[in-house]
Design goal:
This protein has helices spanning 6-18, 26-31, 49-61, 79-87, 98-101, 106-121, 159-162, 200-208, 228-248, 252-268, and strands at 22-24, 38-45, 67-70, 91-96, 129-131, 169-172, 215-219. With 269 residues, it is an alpha/beta fold. Helix 4 (79-87) links the parallel strand 3 (67-70) and strand 4. Helix 1 (6-18) runs parallel beside helix 3, helix 1 (6-18) packs parallel to helix 8 (200-208) and helix 3 (49-61) runs parallel beside helix 4 (79-87). The mean pLDDT is 91.
Length: 269
């Protein structure tokens, strides 16, 4: 069976529900009691905003509230989609990349961050932000918080800074696989859990067997789709990109070409 479809995503949500997990938004998780089995469904809307809306509708139909972090790029920042996701009762946050866009200029980046934060607050009272990995940049967006405090901007949390992943199990579908962490540049956490999965089916089975951690944060990007053509295209693209990213780590020429292609993609479209 094809994985990373809306159908397989639904089986994951149902497995959590049937096992007695309570779904919280990231904001709720940071401010409410987290006793018992709890899970945060986090979506980084890097692109394909239309797919994010389909996931949001599916979650709403199942009584699940999730958190959607939107970027400022056109592929993510689609006003009508953001409005509809808010209307469905989900949390919206800012997927910031200001330091990378400012090429390391912290003052310039903070001006941009404040402006973009206020923009997304025109749709939702944003309390959570999450860095975008900006894998082709040498600047880690999280470095903004070396000189500033989240609370100064009315923020309660940033997943990579305010979550103890030795206590909270973190799963990410980076690279279009649950074990694609080796392809990640910054979507990496220090974890006290020794659990590894490749497919959604394996995760569902582990949940059903009650061998799954009680506190869970799941990152599911917006590449999940039931559209067969799009699904095959995304799998081919991610397979190619994952291998190029690995190659670029040891080949400077490949790294330069890859970085330029990525920059063109986000600016051109």
């Amino acid at each position: 069976m094809r994985d990373f479809t809306l159908k397989s995503y639904k089986t994951l949500l149902l497995a959590f529900q049937q096992a007695g997990y309570r779904f919280l938004t990231f904001e709720e998780w940071m401010t409410a009691s987290n006793e018992g089995r709890t899970v945060v469904m986090r979506h980084d809307v890097d692109e394909l905003a239309g797919n994010a809306l389909k996931m949001a509708r599916l979650e709403h139909a199942l009584g699940v509230r999730a958190t959607y972090f939107f970027r400022v790029v056109k592929q993510s920042n689609v006003p009508e989609v953001i409005k509809q996701i808010v209307a469905l009762g989900h949390e919206v946050g800012y997927h910031y990349e200001d330091l990378a866009l400012a090429e390391g200029d912290v003052k310039k980046a903070m001006v941009s961050f404040e402006k973009n934060l206020e923009y997304f607050r025109s749709y939702y009272p944003v309390k959570s932000v999450c860095m975008h990995g900006s894998s082709t940049s040498k600047y880690d967006n999280r470095l903004l918080w070396k000189e500033h405090q989240l609370s100064d901007y009315g923020l309660v949390g940033e997943p990579y800074l305010t979550v103890d992943f030795n206590k909270v199990f973190y799963m990410t579908d980076t690279g279009y696989a649950w074990d694609g962490g080796k392809y990640a540049t910054r979507d990496v956490v220090e974890s006290g859990f020794d659990l590894h999965f490749h497919t959604t089916r394996q995760i569902v089975q582990c949940i059903k067997e009650e061998n799954f951690p009680k506190q869970v944060l799941v990152l599911a990007h917006t590449l999940w789709t039931d559209n067969v053509v799009q699904w095959h295209w995304l799998h081919c693209r991610e397979f190619f990109r994952n291998n190029v990213k690995q190659w670029a780590k040891t080949n400077k020429f490949v790294a330069i070409i890859y970085n330029r292609l990525v920059q063109w993609y986000w600016k051109k479209r």
